[in-house]
Amino acid sequence: FVGQALSFSVHAEQSATINAWLHGETGLQALAIHEAPCGYCRQFLYEMATVNQNFVLLVKSNESQPEQTYTSNKLPHFLPEPFGPADLGLTGGLMQTVFHDLETYSTDDTDD
After folding, report:
1. Which residues are listed as membrane-spanning (predicted)?
2. pLDDT in tens, 67-76
């Protein structure tokens, strides 16, 4: 992706979160990542409905150590002055169960 903006791609943190949601998860407790998340991902993760329920980021500690060591921090450590749905008077967020009362119908005569 030489010369391309990473903002036009799906980041690993976003992919893992959406994959969990699409497989029926209603929130995340922790996410293990190799580097500290970028600002875009920090905001994305902050807007999850479960972010204030002790959500933890596990970040790989030391590149030179062969064993997998991680530091554990809550999201506010990475996003000290967050702005999210609650600041707009909204409840919930990403991964919240919402009933939209939608129906599907077809005018195709072959759908009997």
Report:
1. none
2. 677 788 888 8
Q: Of 96, 87, 82, 110, whose CA–CA distance to 28 is shortest?
A: 96
pLDDT digits (tens, 9 = 90+) for 16-36: 999 998 998 888 888 888 888
Global pTM reads 0.71
Residue of 30, 83, 81 whose CA lies nearest to 58: 30
Sheet hosting strand 56-60, strand order edge to edge: 30-33, 56-60, 70-74
Give CA–CA dist 67/49, Å, rounded: 33
Res 16: pLDDT: 93
Task: Quickly count: other Cβ atoms within 10 Å of residue 62's Cβ.
Answer: 10
Please, are residues 81 and 36 in contact by the beta-carbon 8 Å criterion?
no
User: Which CATH code for domain 8-88?
Assistant: 3.40.140.10
CA–CA separation, 75 and 9 (whole Å): 22
**Residue that the structure tokens 């030489």 belong to:** 2
For residue 106, the one-letter residue type is S
**Domain ranges for the chain:** 8-88
